[in-house]
Predict the 3D structure of the following.
Amino acid sequence: MTETSPPHRVVVVGASMVAHRFVESLLARADTATTVTVIGEEPHRPYDRVALTSFLSGATPDDLTLDRSVFDDHRVDLLAGDPVIRIDRGAATVLTASRATVPYDTLVLATGSSAARPAVEGADLPGCFVYRTIDDLSSLREYVAERERQLGRPLTGKVIGGGLLGLEAVGALQELGVDGAVVHSGTHLMSAQLDRAGGDVLGRLIERRDITVRTSTRTTRIDADRTGRVAGLEFHDGSREPTDVVVFTVGVRPNDALAREAQLACESDGGVRIDDTCRTSDERILAIGEVAAFDGRCVGLVAPGYAMAEVAADRLFGGSATFPGYDDSAKLKLSGVDVASFGDALATAPDALDVVYTDPVGGVYKKLVLSDDASTLLGGIFVGDAASYGALRPLVGRPLGADPAAYLLPSGGMEAPAGELPDEAIVCSCSSVTAGRIRSAVHEDGCADAGEVKACTKAGATCGSCFAMVKKITAQELTALGKSVSSALCEHFDLSRRQLYDAIVVSRETTFSGILERFGRGRGCDVCKPTIASILHGLVGEHVLDGESAALQDTNDHVMANMQKDGSYSVVPRMPGGEVTPDGLVVIGEVARDFGLYTKLTGGQRIDMFGARLEQLPDIWRRLVEAGFESGQAYGKSLRTVKSCVGSTWCRYGVLDAVGMAVRLELRYRGLRSPHKLKLGVSGCARECAEARSKDAGVIATENGWNLYVGGNGGFTPRHAQLLAEGLDDDALIRTIDRYFMYYIRTADRLQRTAPWLADLDGGLDGLREVIIDDSLGIAGDLDDAMARHVDAYEDEWAATLKDPDKLTRFHSFVNAPTTPDPSLAYVAERGQVRPASDEERQSGSVMIAGTTLEVRQ
Ligand SMILES: Cc1cc2nc3c(=O)[nH]c(=O)nc-3n(C[C@H](O)[C@H](O)[C@H](O)COP(=O)(O)OP(=O)(O)OC[C@H]3O[C@@H](n4cnc5c(N)ncnc54)[C@H](O)[C@@H]3O)c2cc1C
Ligand code: SF4
């Protein structure tokens, strides 16, 4: 094609993730004589369907929209909300529902799939949903809210289908406040990706999250109530269960109707047949993504679709790329549980060997599938802990290079073998980026860090599971080039957090301005200010609102409360070990009632009160402090809670006093500022009711004393803590935790939780043991002294603030009118409490309680 030839007209049917990738890739290759028209059925710009569930936790369609610049290009036209209804291959045109006829030189089908509903009576009743599009989730959310209002109670919900989408959907139902259950016809969850043992461990982990799992159960009918809305399910064994809402996740069907009508070759099971160049039986028509059937099948993952998009774009411009076949690998977080499966996960190869590690108490199942001579990695399954996935998936079909146990055992902590990866190994399966491409991004494209490599190659840009490996390879290549790998804290400090900590200790500087002048430049930023405030707090013991320190804090520290989405604050008093007296409960109840606060129990066993206005915080705290409560520091990068079970004092299985120890630990570490939040858990026996192994420090009682686990966390990337020491008495336990926390505080990066810190530490868990138990560096005494200083210097931040008129001046909504509350806060009543009003409620005037008029009884 040249500038003078007529433009090559590419028409894409379907405006989703794969179409977006195709257009992006085409633009990167195309000259100006190409035009692209993308025609989509959904009334949105292409959006991230993989992240769809975040829509239910507050993401807007805008947040989900994929890179808009692709459609801002003058060569690209997007017709959204106007489905194609016919392809006329003779005339080389497509016809849309609005009767527009669009001619093409090349047609690309990217129509994806639609969610299926089972063929059972009642599947179309109001209250039955599928889970595929923004509009599906929006209808589900509205229905749940409306039905809850009608019934005046929380709803129950059933997800039919226990595959990966079903588990995601039931987690989402839970987020909506619906008591969810999964009903699955197979013998175990995710039967397409996991073996029975892995599926069973997953089932137990899901049940621990208060989600009921019912396997080997077929739904035969869905019943309605008198209003015609869904009310119950009937199963194949004749049993029934009530339900208020049903979500079907029983599979998808390729949207191939257009292609069939146009007489393109299709598979009998569905899907438009393509060859390895993504061509259909008509050479002017390509198919990519979930609608395309290669080797007789379609696959419901985005990575193969992206690979097809790249091949199709390359071929249009005379390239020779071919689709290599499906890589079904997937790493997902389902209802909070890490699950990964890759390669020949179900060990179908003849004489394949399994190496399995399972920890039923901790809820971990890991399996590697090896060739019959145990030399070559064929695939694997991870449930509960998928940390090794990124390191192992690129090794499929290659020698493992280490004892399989090194990758599986919790204490193995095998590092990603980036250096051994051959150039052709696929590191990012979502975007088909090889180790060689990452290396060339550093050597040939001049990328100077992993972020630049990501932008340049798209490695790690989709699901992100390979980004640790991308960073590692990038760092290796930069080092090989003699370039330094930056560990600078931010643009104002070239030192890492650890170096800065040492510099502050040695220089004895005690102010931010002094530190900036001596070791940094400029005026500081949101990264270095709170980092230095946290270091100084530990070293100098200054109040967070003292002098210069007050200006350095994060938003929440700034007012010693957690800001909520409507701009109000939450208040969390400390309850060591989750204990609270009846009198204490009465005070909390009275405070919540008098200030109109919404109350809720937290996962860390304390009570959170929401909806406080800035100017109310001192009055609320005055009453709490008078009743003997302290700040729970739910706002700080510091100790949060020590969760505990009831232990030997009440429980017949308990072997040690878990509550007593939890209280002791919480009182010792309260107020301890650290690079990230710190959580502890104490269980009275191996049944682990306090879930201590999901904490930074987990303590479990045994007949021989306390076992200490370190480096666990929940959150976005859950990790199980690893066993550091066993059979400790009370003093040895506390000494070991003292040193572990202090060593972490001194050496971790900013916002690095204990798990990644431990993974980066020289020698890992063994290295930590050597430093804090064997005292290999001779610093154990310093660490003990530092903790002793912290314990001595502890002072409740809120009690101190109430005594200081200067500090109290910052708790005003409006600087010029200290007693005027913020009028933007508005609430409605729900289930006997208040919640923030939605935009529609504000506009409709149905707001019942507004911030300006809320009566405060004192
Ligand atoms: C909640 C959820 C979570 C997921 N999580 C993951 C994950 O973690 N990892 C993963 O790999 N995959 C995941 N997937 C699957 C992934 O989203 C799909 O594989 C991917 O979106 C496929 O993209 P596609 O472009 O081929 O098809 P689709 O996303 O189905 O898009 C096709 C588009 O074409 C439109 N269309 C259909 N017919 C017409 C027509 N006649 N005219 C115009 N437009 C038409 C459709 O309305 C749709 O917008 C998830 C899916 C869901 C629903
Ligand atoms: S962990 Fe053990 S001691 Fe604690 S409540 Fe559970 S069973 Fe009882």
About this structure: Residues 13-19, 39-42, 49-50, 52-53, 83-84, 110-113, 131-132, 165, 168, 255, 258, 289-290, 300-303, 305, 330, 332 surround flavin-adenine dinucleotide (ligand 1) (CB under 6 Å). DSSP finds 27 helices and 39 strands in the chain. The two ends are 79 Å apart (CA to CA).
